[in-house]
Automatic annotation (TrEMBL):
GO terms for molecular function: methyltransferase activity. InterPro entries: SAM-dependent_MTases_sf. Pfam families: Methyltransf_23. One of its GO terms (biological process) is methylation. Its EC number is 2.1.1.-. Keywords: Methyltransferase, Transferase. It comes from Gilvimarinus japonicus. This is Class I SAM-dependent methyltransferase. SUPFAM superfamilies: S-adenosyl-L-methionine-dependent methyltransferases. It comes from the Bacteria.
Length: 219
C-alpha cells in the first residue's frame, strides 16, 4: 500500500510508491507534487543538524572573493536598481560569510542577518523590511511553506523577496543535474512552483535570471 507524504510547500498528500517517484538514485528518491510542482525528498533523507552544518562548514564563500561577488551580482544588480536609498533589508540564510549583505551595506543599505546556524537570532524576523534576500537557501528548507510565509509577513508593501536558486526542469534534465547531488538540497523549485507561490501570496512574479526570482508584495 502506498504511503502518503505531505508536500512541504503546499501540504498536498503525495503517494510515495515507486510508480509516483519523479526520480531516484542510489541515495534517495524524489517526489514531485502535482499541485505546486515542488520536487522534494522524504524527511527520512534529511541530515541531522550536526551533519548539515558540517556540510556548510566546508563551503569557502569569502566576503571579498571577486568570483563569489560576481555570482551574487545576478541578484544584487537588479535588486539595487529598484531600491530607494533608505531601503532596509534582511539577508536570510546569510551563511558564515555574508558577502551579499556586505555588498549591500557598501552602497549604503541597512541589512540585518539571519541564519539558522551562523546568525540564529530570530528576533530579526519581528521587523518589517523593504527587501529580503534568500540566496541559495530555499533548496535547504525543511519547511519552505512556513519559512516563506514568515518572510512574506516581514515585508513592507511593495517589498521584494529576492530568491536565488537553480530551477528544476524535466526528469531527463534532473537525472544529470549536479544540484540534486548535494545531500543538504531537499526541495527543488521550478518555474511552475514559483508561479504557484506567487498566486498563493498574491505577489508580482519576475524571473530576473535563470536562477533569480523576485516576488514583490502588492500595495
Amino acid at each position: 500500500m502506498s504511503q502518503l507524504l505531505r508536500c512541504p510547500l503546499c501540504h498536498t498528500d503525495c503517494p510515495s510508491d515507486e510508480a509516483s517517484w519523479f526520480y531516484c538514485d542510489r541515495r534517495r528518491f524524489y517526489l514531485r507534487c502535482h499541485h505546486c510542482y515542488l520536487i522534494f525528498v522524504p524527511s527520512r533523507f534529511y541530515l541531522s543538524p550536526a551533519r548539515e552544518k558540517s556540510e556548510y562548514d566546508l563551503h569557502d564563500n569569502q566576503v571579498y572573493d571577486p568570483g563569489y561577488r560576481r555570482f551574487l551580482n545576478r541578484l544584487y544588480a537588479p535588486l539595487v536598481a529598484r531600491l530607494s536609498s533608505v531601503a532596509r533589508g534582511l539577508d536570510f540564510g546569510c551563511g558564515p560569510g555574508p558577502a551579499l549583505a556586505a555588498m549591500l551595506r557598501e552602497v549604503g543599505f541597512t541589512v540585518a542577518l539571519y541564519d539558522i546556524f551562523y546568525a540564529p537570532d530570530r528576533s530579526v524576523l519581528a521587523t518589517k523590511y523593504d527587501f529580503i534576500t534568500v540566496t541559495e537557501v530555499v533548496e535547504h528548507l525543511h519547511n519552505p511553506y512556513g519559512e516563506l510565509q514568515t518572510l512574506w509577513g516581514c515585508l513592507e508593501k511593495n517589498g521584494v523577496l529576492a530568491i536565488m536558486t537553480k530551477l528544476a526542469l524535466d526528469a531527463t534534465a534532473f537525472a544529470g543535474w549536479h544540484y540534486k547531488n548535494d545531500p543538504t538540497h531537499i526541495c527543488f523549485f521550478s518555474r511552475q512552483t514559483f508561479e504557484f507561490l506567487a498566486d498563493t501570496l498574491n505577489a508580482r512574479l519576475e524571473f530576473m535570471a535563470d536562477d533569480v526570482v523576485f516576488l514583490t508584495k502588492r500595495s
